[in-house]
Amino acid sequence: MLEGLRIAFIAGTLGQGGAERQLYYILRTLKENGAQAIVLSLTRGEYWEPRIRNLGIPVIWVGQASSRPVRLARIVRELHRIQIDIVQSQHFYTNLYAALAARILNIREIGAIRGDGTSDVQANGRWTGLLCLRIPRVLAANSWAGIRNAVRMGVSPEHLFFLPNAVDTEYFHPSPHDHRREICLLIVGRLTTVKRIDRFLCILARLRSQSKIPVLGLIVGDGPLRSALEQQAQELGLLPYGVNFQGRVTDMRPFYQKADILVLTSDWEGTPNVVLEAMACGLPIVSTRVGDVPDLVQRSQAGCLFSSIEEGVCRLLELIVDRDMREAMGRAAREYVMKHHRVSVLREALSDLYQKVL
Question: What does DSSP assign to residue 159?
Fold first, then answer.
């Protein structure tokens, strides 16, 4: 089904995000299976652009103007020039570009839901968000939570398709632990309100006062709340030895392999790449009940869930004192990702998606 297809992707950014990593995996799969792809990006010079070009896939900058109508006109001109079968949006906020350009050119389009649906709409303003949700004739969502919420907001189920996030399981893999005495809790994400790193710091402070085993926190990521979070960590007595603000990194594998447990404290998510990558590296997951994470954790038996700081402290204390439980969950996590989320699953999923569209 993939061989000979011509697909153009519209990307809002090619920076170091989960949606951009998934785009790279999709493009690599298409290239390996005989499809032709091109990327129209609203930004240029970012992390994934040279990596996509190294696949032999062109990247065209279409974000010269800030005006949406002007950007749309540029996108239409490029799509008309290259003559494609499908235009696919990789970010929720570029759905309108894909849908309108497809109608102008009389081709098919695919929109994207990257979060839980509700948060996607809210982040773009109610009316623009609803247009991004309802205008595309097919929407590819990376979480069942996103699909359920889209249906609740008026999208017909027949217009929705589950496209799972994938993980490079050859690259993300476990490494032997040295069984050091301290436990390292890892949290990864942009330092914004929705990620609730403040919640993680409160949990970490309580763990360090209650656990007989030393507990260290590692925060990977950067963002507008970093100064406030560092101040909170100072007030909780976590600095300089209880927590490390690592900042943004280009390679997550060493951090997964250094950690003992991945913690997720977000208020909303879809299917986070960070959870799947950590599972591929054999880490147990302790998470809030957001997006597809509860189903993922429960089906794989790879971790546990919490709804409050107190419950989070209890769940983590159980894992901190029980190394056998941590290792069993880590093995289950790796096995589940190998079966359901390795990159090879994309071939069949993309074939089904494009067959549905065409």
Answer: G
Give tens-digit pLDDT for 239-260: 999 999 999 999 999 999 999 9
Amino acid at 311: E
Element (H, E) at 50: helix 48-53
Q: Where are the alpha helices (DSSP H) in 106-236?
A: 118-123, 126-134, 144-152, 197-210, 226-235
Distance CA 138, CA 113 (A): 11
Q: Which two tokens mark 7?
A: 């697909």
Instruction: Please give the Cα distance from 328 to 249 (Å, whole number).
Output: 29
**pTM (2 decimals)?**
0.94
Do residues 109 and 75 make contact, with C-beta atoms less than 8 angstroms apart?
Answer: no
Domains of the chain: 6-166+343-357 (3.40.50.2000), 183-340 (3.40.50.2000)
| CA dihedral over 12, 18, 19, 22, signed as positive or negative | positive
Q: Which two tokens stand for residue 249?
A: 């990194």
- The pLDDT, as a whole number, for residue 349 is 97
Q: Is the pLDDT of residue 274 over 70?
A: yes
